[in-house]
Amino acid sequence: MTAQKMSVDLDKIRMAVRTGIPLSITTYTLPHEMEIYMNDVLTAFLTELNQQQMIQYLNYCLNELITNAKKANTKRVYFRDKELDITNENDYNLGMKTFKEDMLNNINYYLQLQKKEGLYVKLLLQMRNNKIKIEVRNNSALTVFEYKRIHDKLARAQQYTSVEEALTQILDDTEGAGLGLVIMILMLEKIGLTEENFQTLCENGETITRIILPLSEEMQKEMNIVSAEFVRTIDDLPQFPENIVHLSRLLSDPDSKMSDIAMQISNDVTLTAELLKLVNSAAFALANPCASIADAVKLVGLRGIKNLLYSIGSVQAFTNVSGSREELWTHSYRVAFYSYNMARNFCTSERSVIDDAYICGLLHDMGKIIFETAHPDLLAKVMQICRTKGVSQDIFEKLISGVNHGEIGARIAERWNFPEVITCVIRHHHEPENSPKEARRLTSLVYLSDLMVHYQQGEVDFYQIDPEVLRMFKISTEEQFKKISDRLKNAFDRENTR
After folding, report:
1. Fewer CB within 10 A of the end CB, N or C, for the chain?
2. Is residue 57 within 8 Å of residue 188, measured between CB atoms?
3. What is the pTM of this model?
4. Percent helix, strand, coil in the chain (nearest 5)?
5. β-bridge partners, 327
6. Contact, 175 vs 96, CB < 8 A?
7. Alpha-carbon torsion 298, 300, 305, 309, what sign?
8. How far, in Å, CA of 355 to CA of 74, rounded?
9. Which of 461-468's residues contact partners 24+ apart within 8 Å by CB, and which partners?
């Protein structure tokens, strides 16, 4: 990134908070403008999470960590420039005698050296599983001596009860005296954290300093209150059309015959059209078009018919309500198409994943659709109930904007007696690692399809996609991901222009 003044992209921050994806900023020389920008991003991130009480303390911690990371990179190029081995104890002690003075006198020279060598400082922010993660990374692995010094400083921090006491007692001036790190630990203690919330480790050639913060219990409690009240208050929640409810009962009756099911479908123009469209799609690759409902029912099977009902019923229930947003459904149809087609390619031996991929992709954002289609009077009613329970308006507005929509959608799905696998995918489609083991692959598939659509729209970068999910589907590079993405986009666009 350049050193010019940069404005914070609030939409990207909101997207990261809603979906649990990471935000990352990388710099090679860390100019002052970049420090300000990183602080602004952290401030906006914490504000979006309603954690304003942490801003002052965590901005101090961030400044300390990025300065230390920059200094570690500068040390590497300084030692190489002086032909000293930073991993040798004698060379290390010799180099540190002159490092500080030389660096201050010729900082631009050493900064350009580290930029030339590709040494970076990276900030990563993420909110997932009700925990806030703040990481600072630099691609200079710690030496044994540096690692020991850090842990000595962390141990030293336990001796002090206040910042003032630390300031008066730390006199060592060899490497910034470790005062900044000690104060940082004391700052964390001020917001109820301990040194256990702070980690330093080396991984794949990177030094990682990490602060893990639990989302405040108060915010979690308030979000749960709003979610529960919203679901409980919806007396006029859209219901499935009666014909679909009747057919669903017929499918669940073990004494039903396939001919009875075919007859019931034949009596409904919409169901007939959708079923024939499904069996004559590329998914079934029939040599000759199918025109018989009885044959179509046999081809699709009971599970396929049930999923078709959930799909049609949900669309009809929501589109009959004023306020339905076309762009949300367009997104959902695209995610459904991607999920189904990736399931056919990546899960060839998992019939249940293939069968359920389309419906789970279609309904993954049910929580968002509920809010978008809700009548203003209903929202006002829920807001009033929340006020009486002491829930802040900020929390209510964040839920309306999409935070926690997975949980709200899942609660609605449970109320509609949807199968557990569909409910699981709706609930965990932004955090597939929390999905039950039996639904994890399908949840990961929908997660990946959802982010692929956002990637195509420029709302998500490749680095923000969970590496574990990419590995699950054997995607190792952005080039490979983009190739799959382009192929699916072109196929969907062709399908929808016929």
Report:
1. C
2. yes
3. 0.76
4. 65, 5, 25
5. none
6. yes
7. negative
8. 55
9. 461/24, 463/22, 463/24, 464/16, 464/21, 464/22, 464/23, 464/24, 465/21, 466/21, 466/432, 466/433, 468/433
Q: Count Cβ atoms within 10 A of the Cβ of residue 442 and give its class: 0-12 exposed, 13-18 middle, 19 or more buried.
A: buried
Asked if the model's pLDDT at residue 258 lies above 60, the reply is yes
| Tokens matching residue 388 | 């009486």
Helices (H), 106-215: 107-116, 144-157, 163-169, 179-190
Q: How far apart are CA 139 and CA 289, in angstroms?
A: 58
Amino acid identity at 101: E
- For 16, 30, 37, 38, 136, the CA distances from 1, given in Å and listed in that order, are 20, 10, 11, 12, 16
Widest pairwise Cα distance in the chain:
89
- Residues 6 or more apart whose Cβ sits within 8 Å of residue 477: none
CB 455 within 8 A of CB 489: no
Please enumerate in sequence order all residues whose Cβ is within 8 A of that of 301, keeping only pairs 6 or more positions apart, or say none.
Answer: 355
What is the Cα Rg of the chain in Å? 28
> What CA–CA distance (Å, rounded) separates 21 from 454?
12
* Alpha carbon distance 357, 443 (integer Å): 9
Per-position DSSP letters for 243-310, written without gaps between them = HHHHHHHHHH-TT--HHHHHHHHHT-HHHHHHHHHHHTSTTT--SS----HHHHHHHHHHHHHHHHHH
Kind plus residue range of the DSSP H or E element containing 212: strand 206-214
Alpha-carbon distances, residue 30 vs 24, 113, 181, 453 (angstroms):
14, 13, 19, 33
Q: Strand pairing partners for 208?
A: 137, 201
Cα separation of 262 and 296, whole Å?
8
Q: Which helix (H) or strand (E) holds 24?
A: strand 23-27
Q: How far is CA 382 from the centre of its chain?
A: 27
Contacts with 379 (C-beta within 8 Å, 6 or more apart), sequence order: 371, 400
**Which candidate, 200, 247, 148, 191, places its Cα nearest to that of 51?**
191
CA dihedral 100, 106, 109, 112 (to 10 degrees): 60
Average pLDDT for the chain? 81
User: How would you write 313-365 as a 3-class SS string?
Assistant: HHHHHHHCCCCCCHHHHHHHHHHHHHHHHHHHHHCCCCHHHHHHHHHHHHHCC
**Residues 114-166: pLDDT tens digits?**
999 999 999 999 998 778 999 999 999 888 878 887 777 777 767 766 666 66
Q: What are phi and psi of 144, to 5 degrees?
A: -60, -40
pLDDT in tens, 366-380: 888 777 666 566 667
